Amino acid sequence: MRAPLPPEPEAGSEPTEVHVCHNCRVRLDPSLGGVDLPRRIREALHKRGLAITTRVLSSGCLGECPRGLVTVLVIPPGGRGAHAELIDAAKDGEDLAELLGREAARAGRP
């Protein structure tokens, strides 16, 4: 059964985009479930109330090739201040959700 799609952001507001490197995910140890990582990131964002303001997308190579970690590109609303982050797939996206929550609070976003 497919998980429901996250609700659309309010008209006129731009979501934060999170691009998850496909190449990093497929190189992970199978026990870490890299193929399923975007869904787990979405769930972690949902738990923190960030799902409505964040889009999780799969991407090609992002140029960082860490061992045992996954590269994600975070693009804030408006596109300014984009940055790459390395996340631990074993944490099921909780580390990324925590970071995005801090960034949203600093920017005054819900």
Structure, described:
By secondary structure, this protein is an alpha+beta fold. The protein has 3 helices and 4 strands. The chain has a 4-stranded mixed beta sheet. It is globular. The termini are far apart.
Lay out the secondary structure.
Elements: E1 16-21, H1 22-27, H2 37-47, E2 54-59, E3 70-75, E4 83-87, H3 94-107
Parallel strand pairs: 1-2
Antiparallel strand pairs: 1-3, 3-4
Secondary structure: helix percent: 25-40%
* Total E-strand runs: 4
Structural category is alpha+beta
Residue ranges: pLDDT <50 for 5 or more in a row? Answer: none
Radius of gyration: 13 Å
Describe the structure in brief.
The protein is an alpha+beta fold and 110 residues long.
Key features?
110 residues; alpha+beta; 3 helices
